[in-house]
Amino acid sequence: MRDAKGSWECLAVDLWQRVAAELRLRFEFRDLTIRELTDELQQGRPFALATATASADREPLMEFSHPYYTG
């Protein structure tokens, strides 16, 4: 999600920023459609995804973790 100023904010964003800082990783947040996401994955580009819609047809392209919170 983005706040009124366009900055990314949510639990997944906060968690990733802390992990990346500890591991000294460079990263950028990007909005991608599902089609853009699968194209990027097939080309080996993304390192991590904060959110994605799990489905059987996408499982061969990526590994899904278990949810770390329930809404």
Main traits of this protein?
single chain, 71 residues, mainly alpha
Commentary on this structure:
This protein is an all-alpha fold and 71 residues long. The protein is 31% helix and 0% strand. It contains two helices and no strands. It has helices at 11-23, 34-42. The mean pLDDT is 79.
β-strand number: 0
Q: Report the uncertain regions.
A: none
Class based on secondary structure composition and strand pairing: mainly alpha
Query: N-to-C terminal Cα separation, in Å?
Result: 15 Å
Sheet with most strands: none
Shape: globular
**From the alpha-carbon coordinates, what is the Rg to the nearest angstrom?**
13 Å
SSE order, one letter for each helix or strand: HH
Name the average pLDDT: 79
Indicate the percent of residues in helices: 25-40%
How many DSSP H or I helices? Answer: 2
Q: Could you tell me the strand content as a percent range? A: under 5%
Overview in brief:
The chain has helices spanning 11-23, 34-42. With 71 residues, the chain is mostly helical.
What's the arrangement of secondary structure elements?
Layout: H1 11-23, H2 34-42
